[in-house]
Amino acid sequence: MATKIDKEACRDxxxxxxxxxxxxxxxGFKYEGSTIVPAGHxxxxxxxxxxxxDDSRLFGFVRVTTGDAMSKRAKFTLITWIGENxxxxxxxxxxxxxxxxxxxxxxxxKEFMISDRRELEMDYIRNELKKAGGANYDAxxx
Length: 142
Fold this sequence. Notes:
Blueprint: E1 4-5, H1 7-18, E2 26-32, E3 35-42, H2 45-51, E4 57-67, E5 72-82, H3 88-104, E6 110-114, H4 122-132
Parallel strand pairs: 1-3, 5-6
Antiparallel strand pairs: 2-3, 2-4, 4-5
């Protein structure tokens, strides 16, 4: 059965993360049968991390504040989480299903495909976004 996405509900969650007037900094998208639906959203990244279990596969859209002494800015990332216990067929399918998510989640600085919980740590994500972000005036102080 072909995978579908609840575009309207997922777009609503995506827009909450993009909105500068909310504290919401993540939205998750999970599989419900063969449909991708919102898995939740919130202001605590740890909540998103708790959705990323060995038995789950999901997508996350995350706002990360980056910058240096000169400026702070919001960067966005798309995370694809594939738990350790996910079958080979489901692992392969998530790559094609990601195109459905990208129809909704269109603006992000960096994309991650993660199956190791250590790579979910905010410090790791922030450092990778810094590398992709151009000028870093804090590097001169190091």
